[in-house]
Amino acid sequence: MAPETPLPPGSVIGILGGGQLGRMLAMAAAEMGLAVHIFSPPGDNPATDVARSATIAAWDDTAALEAFAAAVDVVTYEFENIPVATAEFLAARKLLRPGVRALAVAQDRMNEKELARSLDIDVPLFAAVDAASELAGARTFVGLGGRHAILKTRRLGYDGKGQAVIRSDDDAAAAWRAIGGVPAILEEMIPFTREISVLVARGIDGSTRAFDVPENRHRHGILDTSTVPASVTPGVARRAIAIGETIAAELDYVGLLAVELFVVGDGDDAALLFNEIAPRVHNSGHWTTDACLVSQFEQHIRAVAGWPLGDPRRHSDVVMTNLIGADAETWVSVANEPDARLHFYGKAESRPGRKMGHVNRIRRMAG
Amino acid sequence: MAPETPLPPGSVIGILGGGQLGRMLAMAAAEMGLAVHIFSPPGDNPATDVARSATIAAWDDTAALEAFAAAVDVVTYEFENIPVATAEFLAARKLLRPGVRALAVAQDRMNEKELARSLDIDVPLFAAVDAASELAGARTFVGLGGRHAILKTRRLGYDGKGQAVIRSDDDAAAAWRAIGGVPAILEEMIPFTREISVLVARGIDGSTRAFDVPENRHRHGILDTSTVPASVTPGVARRAIAIGETIAAELDYVGLLAVELFVVGDGDDAALLFNEIAPRVHNSGHWTTDACLVSQFEQHIRAVAGWPLGDPRRHSDVVMTNLIGADAETWVSVANEPDARLHFYGKAESRPGRKMGHVNRIRRMAG
Questions:
Q1: How far apart are CA B95 and CA B76, in angstroms?
Q2: pLDDT in tens, A234-287
Q3: Measured between beta carbons, which residues in chain A are less than 8 angstroms from residue B344?
Q4: Can you tell me the distance from the alpha carbon of A244 to that of A238, in angstroms, rounded to the nearest whole number?
Q5: Which terminus of chain B is more exposed, N or C, with fewer CB under 10 A?
Q6: How many angstroms separate the CA atoms of B43 and B61, rounded?
Q7: Which chain A residues contact residue B308 at CB under 8 A?
Q8: Alpha-carbon span B350 to B367, nearest angstrom
Q9: Which regions of A35-118 does DSSP assign to beta strands (E)?
Q10: What is the value of pTM for the model shown?
Q11: Digit-coded pLDDT (tens) for A45-102
């Protein structure tokens, strides 16, 4: 079932999920002459505006999944909280890239951390917390370095949701309640110097190509800006990319993989600690659309369609800024900035904390 | 009916025509958060793959046009051979940008040439030929310079269709038959040094922004390559752009206007002669997608939506090559070129002479 030849123009890429990542993937596919079929549950699915076809159905609607699988040439996803059962159902019928394992690992923070540790990648101290009674022991272990700890739900967390900081004994019970008393992971809080991410694509032949490493700042738990180049030395950037390549190889990954890392310290000796992966195109790669010849979206579609990977070279320095909720109201002023490229996701409704678009500000065109 | 404020994200752009230009316009609009509704007669309409809505109906289907006008916020076109009556019908109901006059002028080679001449723009010698009996007189006039002449249908010509060269008396009757004996224009054949085009956008406030001037080569009457920068001096490029601005102002144009020009001679003294206009995005501007911050497609949508025009600055030297008919079969090798960006139009069927896609080869990233 695995064609080792690239899917020709006219082939159909099935995308699970109908949000902004699916929308930008769909446009990249269309530029390559590939058609897109979106599968997503009911809701605001802006990707369907730029897709040839869409199936709006629940993740467990096997009749709809069956028809979807029959209608497409390969399946990918833009969203990592798709039920593993859905992914398995599709993988049994059609190529799924990236595969089920990448999805399953990324859905559980314990799995992610254990995978990284098994690959000799440095990770913050962590411990599973499956019940309130396990919290004290976990704190003793994680707190050995004298650091604060952060309690996170193992599953379904994103944009800072499902997280609570524990600074003292008094916080512990409240933290457990705050995250809803579900299976969790307690992690030491890393006093990082900066956060970076790796955006590495892996092709069907196992070759990899990485974009330059962006430096990411968060606000209220949501990505605010990604700046390229990051303030890390070339040696640190190479080490970061090697971490991404190691994980991608272990997962026999096909597509674009994002790995978020903490940087502690400066210069070549800075430490890198694993934070999490996203088995998909990533918000911290949105700058690639305007600063590189090939965007993360095209690179992902190239991999998924079995095409040779593109050249991720960057022609400009750039700062990507998310437009969250009411930020989107600044669009006229952004549209007037000569060095800014505005991207809107076509979402029907703006809500606080909702990603409505982003702007890439070109800082310097590199020679 | 003319809002002088920009249409906000979520607004709907109506596009007349469903071909590759509509497709690339639709994607540019989607990046800006604008929805697209395509109106096109039945056939291969690849733009509908990336549009939120589509009406497939004849140009004279007034019920369909009425509903289309009601469903969109502004109307533009990607194809200049839309019946003027259709454009007038829509312009009476909704903003049409560019307007009816630009369309009417561009549809008739006599109108184009007369417009240019009325604006003191140099044009080749030309004469109307409405009947076979007028051909001899026209040849006497046009042939004054001792040059060969070219007979072209006044209307509906494109990609070298509807044209016949007259080198001697023996050719004249055959040329008249070859173009189908319809109202025509006889033009002196200009022994040009090169061909260039102007890609100038004009906003609702009358401001203009031009892209760098490409140099165009044709093969079998169809555009083959556009190379930027063109081999003309900055002074010649400025004179060319001024011609585009003059025509755009005269037409009270809103959107991207293409003007094709002949260059005769070299250096600052080179002569520029008007060839024709296209009241839309243009094949010779396809390189802007990969070599500029803002593409011709986004620039057109910005103008049509009443947004401020974007910065047409170019970051790279580039050669655009059309993939015509069987050229498209080279896609795997093009996908392997590190400096090439491949664009396919999603057309269902390849035919000789049919534009299937194009490739932008980045030659040097400019500083």
A1: 9
A2: 999 999 999 999 999 999 999 999 999 999 999 999 999 999 999 999 999 999
A3: 9, 31-34
A4: 10
A5: N
A6: 16
A7: 335-336
A8: 39
A9: 35-40, 53-56, 74-77
A10: 0.95
A11: 999 999 999 999 999 999 999 999 999 999 999 999 999 999 999 999 999 999 999 9
